[in-house]
User: Fold this.
Amino acid sequence: MRREASAVRRFTRSKAGNVVYFLFLGVFGLFSVLPLIYCVTSSFKPLDEIMLFPPRLVVVARPTFENYLSLPNLLSNLKIPLSRYVSNSLFVSILTTALYVFISTMAAFVLAKGNLKGSKIIFMIIQFALLYTSYTLAVPQYLVFSNLKMIDTYAVYIFPYLASTMGVFLMKQYIDGYVPNALMEAAEIDGAGYFRIFFRIIIPIVKPCILTLTLFGFRDVWSAVPQGTIFSEQLKTLPQVMAQITSGGIARSGSAMAVTVIMMIPPILVYMISQSNVVEAMSSAGIKE
Assistant:
């Protein structure tokens, strides 16, 4: 009993240790959100306060809504209504995210629980594909889209993300850790096929990971700006229009901050809905049965 009590004391932090621990986490947490705080406060600053050096991160001496109120005037010269850009962004983001999550889940299920020859080699290729950035894939993607006659269509927004390997990697690791083979065998004994197992068993179990992929996918697609593949004004999305505003130089610094805050709102809302599931999925991504 004495040994157990001494072991508990040895591995239990004191109250002072807890205070230091939470202060440490709090300081680094505040440091991580400083860019967000600076962006929000700067969107309410007049131009002369934005240009101050050293910059004021939180304090706003003369707050103003002029940066937000000036946006309609900056957008008034657009040939296409602003609602068209918003609808394009919503259509592309929602459709692409849904297809991306569904395809990633199906592919991960086959690699994790299917009797596919060479699945280990395929998964190794997927892991190597994570090393490539969008810049290294830009030229090959353009050549593919050009040969398939997809330039200046919605396809250039959607198809690149459907082949993203991050979703397959994360989902396969989650299935390996949370879907035991015994459960699959029991379902097969009851006469369930792969499609029934996928929709009735796999989907409910991997719901936290699905919400995680939804967050990542929506965030990436929402802020995507295709380079050299979209030319029609009717097909452009909201980030492309907002980029035109932010390219107006120093005089539009306040409006650029306001645009950045507006563009951050949808991903933040999606994150608030799925934050607990994101933590659960990421913490178990490397767990295997």
Summary: The chain has a mean pLDDT of 79. Residues 82-113 form the longest helix (32 residues). The chain has two domains: 2-66, 72-283. The CA atoms of residues 174 and 285 lie 5 Å apart.
